[in-house]
């Protein structure tokens, strides 16, 4: 029973960001076939940040009208919307409409906005829902959240996305004393093993799996004998009553008094929520992508923004180690503040190195040395492992503080994502502070 619940929690967490992560890894196949070209990533980044209206609405409702919003119903709606939008992308992603005399991929942009709303809103609904399960399942949920980036990357790898071959396009004689011959190499993307349509149907299937997992979790007996025959959404009132009893005590005469919360503890947990947002700020600005023709802002996760410049072959699939960090947190949950601070400093230092490498692209330090490639790969792994681990531990600690703490944790995470995107977007897309080289013709001294 416990193993099944862990599996369901993992599949539920997988649906949190699988759609948007999948859309980003598919861009090399989408961009050549639509009128927006490589401006599409920039358009998508704006749409994705606009989608934060979803978590903003949920957070405001939680703050001003607590209990008025049916969290379970919201989750059903957003997962259903994500499933439908992913499926519709398979049919209409290439369809265009003339707007102001210019052909635009309206269907692709609108459906992407819906997918972004689903994934952004999951931060303030999926995570608080896990409050209803036993604490150990929260870490499993984070493993699923990591798989939401790993699985689309693996499928895209099988699909053959982004495989480049350098072909001789022209050759000319250079009349000089040496009479040398100059070859012009051109990068050519290889045909995919299956179409983007099939990939979008795969994403829709993953969202459907998430929906089934949530349905089973919602009616699954996981909280002990007293609740074993009641669905989770029926236990909300009892949970609220129990929360109201927390902090109350009886005096000797039988009167009930309310204990005031300890100020240091409140400050500690507010700080953890802020730390979660700061971690996502560091993580989200990096989720921008750029190529030799333009720059773009990524979806949700400061370093992926420039990972194309940092180490192209590895950066696309760097997040494969994120589930590993969650597994480590599952079996080795260290809640020490000193340890978390140390890991945050290490992760931030690794991020600074990646940013420096990206800023020096296309000719960073040790570019022609094998050790340079080894170092940047190890730094990427260190960056993701440390900050992902800290993020999971923060979630586990805040889980002990109740439903409200997890709602605000998710809201602050989305705020960190927004701030990271706003910070990096002008640097990448406007001022072209970061640039990537031609995979076939870049030569470094």
TrEMBL record:
Keywords: Cell membrane, Membrane, Transmembrane, Transmembrane helix, Transport. It is found in: Cell membrane. It catalyses: riboflavin(in) = riboflavin(out). The chain crosses the membrane at residues 38-61, 73-93, 105-129, 141-164, 199-219, 324-354, 374-398, 405-434. It is a multi-pass membrane protein. Residues 225-264 are annotated as: Disordered. The keyword rRNA-binding does not apply. Pfam families: SLC52_ribofla_tr. Residues 238-263 have a biased composition (Basic and acidic residues). It comes from the Eukaryota. InterPro entries: Riboflavin_transptr. GO terms for molecular function: riboflavin transmembrane transporter activity. Plasma membrane transporter mediating the uptake by cells of the water soluble vitamin B2/riboflavin that plays a key role in biochemical oxidation-reduction reactions of the carbohydrate, lipid, and amino acid metabolism. Belongs to the riboflavin transporter family. This is Riboflavin transporter. It comes from Pleuronectes platessa.
């Amino acid at each position: 029973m416990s193993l099944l619940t862990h599996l369901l929690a993992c599949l539920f967490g997988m649906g949190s960001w699988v759609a948007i992560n999948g859309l980003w890894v598919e861009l090399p196949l989408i961009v050549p076939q639509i009128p927006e070209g490589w401006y599409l990533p920039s358009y998508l980044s704006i749409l994705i940040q606009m989608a934060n209206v979803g978590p903003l609405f949920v957070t405001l409702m939680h703050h001003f009208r607590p209990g008025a919003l049916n969290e379970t119903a919201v989750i059903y709606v957003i997962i259903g919307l994500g499933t439908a939008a992913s499926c519709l992308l398979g049919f209409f992603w290439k369809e265009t409409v003339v707007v102001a005399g210019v052909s635009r991929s309206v269907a692709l942009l609108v459906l992407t906005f819906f997918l972004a709303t689903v994934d952004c809103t999951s931060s303030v609904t999926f995570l608080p829902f896990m409050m209803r399960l036993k604490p150990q399942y929260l870490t499993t949920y984070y493993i699923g959240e990591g798989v939401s980036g790993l699985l689309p990357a693996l499928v895209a790898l099988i699909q053959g996305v982004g495989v480049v071959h350098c072909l001789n396009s022209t050759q000319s004689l250079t009349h000089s004393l040496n009479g040398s011959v100059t070859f012009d190499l051109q990068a050519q993307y290889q045909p995919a093993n299956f179409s983007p349509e099939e990939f979008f149907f795969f994403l829709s299937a993953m969202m459907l799996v998430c929906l089934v997992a949530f349905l089973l979790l919602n009616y699954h007996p996981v909280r002990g004998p007293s609740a074993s025959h009641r669905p989770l959404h029926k236990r909300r009132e009892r949970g609220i009553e129990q929360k109201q009893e927390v902090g109350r005590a009886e005096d000797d005469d039988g009167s009930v008094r309310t204990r005031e919360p300890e100020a240091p503890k409140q400050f500690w947990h507010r700080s953890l929520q802020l730390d979660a947002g700061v971690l996502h700020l560091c993580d989200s600005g990096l989720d921008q992508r750029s190529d030799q023709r333009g720059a773009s802002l990524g979806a949700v996760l400061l370093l992926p923004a420039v990972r194309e410049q940092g180490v192209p072959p590895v950066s696309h699939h760097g997040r494969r180690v994120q589930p590993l960090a969650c597994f480590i947190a599952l079996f080795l949950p260290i809640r020490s503040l000193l340890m978390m601070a140390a890991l945050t400093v290490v992760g931030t230092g690794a991020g600074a190195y990646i940013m420096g490498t990206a800023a020096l692209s296309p000719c960073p330090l040790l570019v022609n040395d094998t050790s340079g490639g080894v170092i940047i790969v190890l730094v990427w792994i260190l960056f993701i492992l440390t900050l992902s681990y800290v993020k999971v531990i923060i979630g586990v600690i805040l889980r002990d503080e109740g439903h409200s703490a997890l709602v605000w944790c998710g809201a602050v995470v989305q705020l960190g994502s927004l701030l990271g995107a706003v910070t990096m977007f002008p640097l990448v897309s406007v001022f072209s502070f970061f640039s990537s080289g031609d995979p076939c013709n870049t030569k470094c001294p």
